[in-house]
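tool=predict chain=A
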Amino acid sequence: METPKVRDIMIPVSEYVVIEERGSLTDAFVALEDFCRDKCKAKPHRDVLVTRDGKVVAKLTMLDVLKALEPRYEHVQTERFQGRTLTAELVDKLIREYGLWADPTAALCRKAGNCSIADVMHLPEAAEFVDEDDTVEHALHRYILGVHQPLLVQKDGDVIGVLRLGDVFDFLRTKMTECAAG
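tool=predict ok
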């Protein structure tokens, strides 16, 4: 059996949610909602690709959105907790100490409308890109080692697709059940 390549399981950019960087966070939510209502019933997208002049330059993930909606996370000094277990007591203490998510949910709409994509988007680092010809195992190593999800798939320096951890897992699960069946 040939070693599976990233291109075999990636989602092409043409099948992904894409928004211009000059939009707002609300625009991103509307684009996700519209896209998923029309095209992705079984496995909805939760991330958005961000473009500038028609080229993918960034991504907007669930984690980016949640941090944008609660900007006080920037003040949490995570290095204080390196190597420690995040117990329920410690998390409760941090929530109280920093006032995390203290605003009513109704304020989220106002926050989302005021957040620009450019201020919230995640500019990917080199480790967040894979080549379409890379093996699925190569991409899997990046996920296990903690790369900001999803991975962006490149061909000749242009982003052509997205590789989500869930899709890699589904691919591996399918292969394992095929092996077990015999």
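Residues 165-181 form the longest helix (17 residues). The chain has a mean pLDDT of 86.
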